[in-house]
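Review this today:
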Amino acid sequence: MNIVLGVGGGIAAYKSALLLRLFTEAGHSVTVIPTQASTKFVGVATWEALSGRPVTNDVFDAVDQVNHVRIGHEADLIVVAPATADLLARAAGGHADDLLTTTLLMARGPVLFAPAMHTEMWQHASTQANVATLRSRGVNVLDPAVGRLTGPDTGPGRLPEPEAIFAAAMALLGSPAPEALDTAQTCEKATEQPESPAVKQGSLSGVRVLITAGGTREPLDPVRFLGNKSSGKQGVALAEAALAAGADVTFVHAHMEVAAPAGAKLQRVETALELRAATLAAAASADVVIMAAAVADFRPSNVSQGKIKKRDDTADPIINLIRNPDILLEVVAHRAAANRRQLIVGFAAETGDEQGDARSYAEAKLQRKGCDLLVLNEVGPGESGSERVFGQDSNKVQILSLDGANPVQASGSKRTVANAVVALIAERLGTT
């Protein structure tokens, strides 16, 4: 495949050298187009050495080859990483003032932006409007990762890791990233059971899949919220597996610590009520619903319009909670009311106690909810004291069936677990 790698002018440009290596080692031909500003961070010589091709950002170089038209026409995919706030603005505005922006205007294939900037720049209304404009045109814009930025500050704005961008790019090309690139899987092979094979391409061709992911946040006041530890990693892995299988994926997500999957129809929500509205609307036309989001069971009954102050002369605030709707139960009820053929997959994060183990609680939940499959995550501290599921790159699940079929065990990387879930869905639909 012919891939164009656009490089914006940010400190994260050095990571794009690793992304370029992933593309070339996978057998793709890569043309690198750095912006003039980006060459202050990584020089042209580096890009030429790693790509094995001449590199320029000037529309007047090799005029006889009409590069500002030819490169975009010949590209099977254009990836821009890092995509700075300025680059996103110029792309949204349709600018054509250098070789990269003219190439973007001439693109015939998919385009993927991987943003990187400081948190305030990413969250600025102008940047968010530009991202919304690009997405409305069918351009794939990843959410930035959350983490350490250039200085001492942290937050959303960090460039997603090269492996994550590579996986998103391969999903757009219909060619899943090789499992060998999953470092978590590699580390686990010595101790875990054999990994599941990659999802069979085309096994969900034409199937409309709705996936919810991430953790909802319930506001207490303008600056505080009740949340949970969900990273969104398992939901993203499920979306990538479904996309690799050929599905038409709608991805409704709350807060995540990873980039949203490229190639899916994205909808960002914040609270459980917002997730409910988006899910019920999208589920009406879905063939499969996978409820992987970590939805808050409760929300504050009253949200303060101003920041709750901590004062020595006042009593500590008392926060009253009310139940959030049971979205999974509603999706099942809507299916029954509409007499719709639809496969519904729920997730259960459970712990055991003196009344029973995690499996027994999950089986009871499956009966109450009435979904077809329930993926059991046993959460809590592992043997080393770290979290077993939330935020980790690996997972171990049991997939329970309402019809009483034997549970399916899956363990390893979250991508491997996702493959197992999607393969079982394809089997149930008879599309394997």
